[in-house]
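Researcher: Re-running this chain for the archive, since the previous output was lost when a drive failed. Same request as before.
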Amino acid sequence: MTVPLLKIGVVLSTMAMITNWMSQTLPSLVGLNTTKLTAAQGGYPDRSIGVLPANPEESWQVYSSAQDSEGRCVCTVVAPQQSMCSRDARTKQLRQLLEKVQNMTQSIQVLDQRTQRDLQYVEKMEVQLRGLETKFRQVEENHKQNIAKQYKAIKAKMEELRPLIPVLEEYKADAKLVLQFKEEVQNLTSVLNELQEEMGAYDYEELHSRVSNLEERLRACMQKLACGKLTGISDPITIKTSGSRFGSWMTDPVAPEGDTRVWYMDGYHNNRFVREYKSMHDFMNSDNFTSHRLPHPWSGTGQVVYNGSIYFNKFQSHIIIKFDFRTSSISKSRQLDYAGFNNAYHYSWGGHSDIDLMVDEGGLWAVYGTNQNAGNIVISKLNPTTLQIIKSWTTNHPKRSAGESFMICGTLYVTNGYSGGTKVYYAYSTNSSTYEYIDIAFQNKYSHISMLDYNPRDRALYAWNNGHQVLYNVTLFHVIRSEEL
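Model: Regenerated structure tokens:
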């Protein structure tokens, strides 16, 4: 609106200047400066200038610079009497003056038309601005609605995170950290409530960043809680029914993300073929697999796949072999000194299960019996690359009395049998070199367990139960030591 109004101001100013010029200059053109003020028709004040001849008998006058009812400038000229000599110098002067006045009148009309056009433009602009104002108001209202939806989504995310707090408190990962998380969640919840009452009180991006950061910290804390003491085992989940009464199956606990291959080994001796299924889905629903031929038959069901290689006990020996699936070759083999083999110190179900290899959060382990330990269980931590023993622990539990065993967070858990009613009743901690008797229910659905191993990535037990491949979820309890607080 500023530019059109400025144009109108210029036009009106120009008209005033022209009017002023006519009122002051026209009389001087004819040598007269007599001014008189009269009333125009209609009651409007009319400022007119009379131009009188030197001799009254010549009888001609010029009136100019009058205003009509709409405020426009009108010039009026009254010609001299017909009897006047047309060659009179004043007649010529009057004719010239008349032409000038007519030209000025036309210019003023043009300016008036332009003024009217600019006024129409201004009115049109006013209508458009009102429309824009309405649109801006609608955009503002829609923006508030979108922000409200975003805040609602954040609050929903917070509701998803909230159940993690009691979980952290239940497992007691870190008392101070849990308290800090709880306070932060409460603060964020309070901020969200305030935002709902007053839009724009907090920056959405910053709030979203804080929520994401808290979520990452909670996830990291949950990873820290992966290690703990076994407190419960779920009911079994039957994945598949296949193979003979004895065997083993597993997934790689340190495989890259997206690698969900399943490895399957039927029988406990005189077999050297390992099946590879592309995924758990393929394993459950199809017979599509790749077969790998090992250079030697395995002994027992204590094999384990770890970081792309399979570790197994060579049949009728106390030699451990590391076979790389990528190169289809033996990458390392080593004799496990003093370990019993060929059914010397097997589990209570037999099956040449003298040496049981297993993996937990800490790495690769071997569980076996020795003459030096009177046939009781020996636990050895192995270097997965060289197969050398890093450290060994001797227990007081007879190997032949154990139904099966598995490692979780550096603790060996032993079952009291392999058939009928079964439970986990003995635990030996390599972290403290102590043992205890426990009582954790363990449902033996198909009455003959010949393989039981823990997978730290899935936090589940893999079992071979009388020709059924079964999974058990586990519950761990994190114990906080005083030095961790």
